[in-house]
Design brief:
Layout (H helix, E strand, L loop, with lengths): L3 H10 L18 E7 L4 E3 L9 E6 L2 E5 L2 E2 L6 E4 L7 E4 L8 E8 L4 E19 L3 E4 L4 E10 L3 E6 L6 E2 L5 E4 L8 E8 L6 E19 L1 E2 L6 E10 L3 E6 L2 E2 L6 E6 L2 E6 L8 E9 L2 E10 L10 E2 L5 H12 L3
Parallel strand pairs: 1-9, 10-16, 17-24
Antiparallel strand pairs: 2-7, 3-4, 3-8, 4-5, 6-7, 8-9, 9-11, 11-14, 12-13, 12-15, 15-16, 16-18, 18-22, 19-20, 19-23, 21-22, 23-24, 24-25
Amino acid sequence: MLSRCQMRSMCVQRGLDLEGLPVRSVDFTRGTDNITVRQGDTAILRCYVEDRSSKVAWLNRSGIIFAGEDKWSLDPRVELEKRNPLEYSLRIQKVDVYDEGSYTCSVQTQHHPKTAQVYLIVQVPPKISTISSDITVNEGSNVTLVCMANGRPEPVITWRHLTPTGREFEGEEEYLEILGITREQSGKYECKAANEVASADVKQVRVTVNYPPTITESKSNEAATGRQALLRCEASAVPTPDFEWYRDDTRINSANGLEIKSTGSQSLLMVANVTEEHYGNYTCVAANKLGVTNASLYLYRPGTGRVDNGSMSLAVPLWLLAASLLCLLSKC
């Protein structure tokens, strides 16, 4: 770092009188110009002289950048911009936030010294720095999602639930709180950080809501003896439910002409060759780690006039439901 005496000596050798440069004085009649530049772009700070004999310099809070044609700064991004003999502008390439601040163009003419100040404002596009990881919670829990972003000006953060309605949450900003979350509130949540500098930065977090099974469809059927028959049971649940089938209090296995096929949220009981013993009431049980539910279905003879499409069966013994849940959870 050069001392003031060393700087003065160098300036005298280069024909520049530092004492004649009012470095810290300001021409208050002109005021300070503001220049706004986006991070990474090039900033040009304009300054003009009255005649070619003027002595000029560019300075900032750190010291002298240029004295006349001589560059004092070690920053390779900084150059003079001289499109005509009377222009003495400063060009800063790949501007960053540490370049922000006040710059002074000091001009000493034959008549009087004057200065022009320019304040460089550096804007930064929004960038999400932190967002919650994907989470899984039980229905009824309280959920807090976090999204933090950097940028200049400070980005505005908004949340949106990515559903067909695309509900936006107003005024939530960095933290989105969902009290008593429901299964309808599961899915992806989008965090958007925006300012006027550039396109918004967008990231997503997935919220999975666990809930106990609910039978959504249980279809009874009719079939003549000697024919095939199919009983269908569907349940909504997260995690995906496991299924069991019962005839009265006896659990059904895939054997003796009966076959159970369960895929995802649906379970099918198939009878390859219906006999008189197959007619009657069946129970479909769906369970996951949060609960168990059941529905009654019927296989009946043609022409009996039965049109029941299945109904929830609350008459199933509690011990049977408990045993079913225990068996399903232990994968017996």
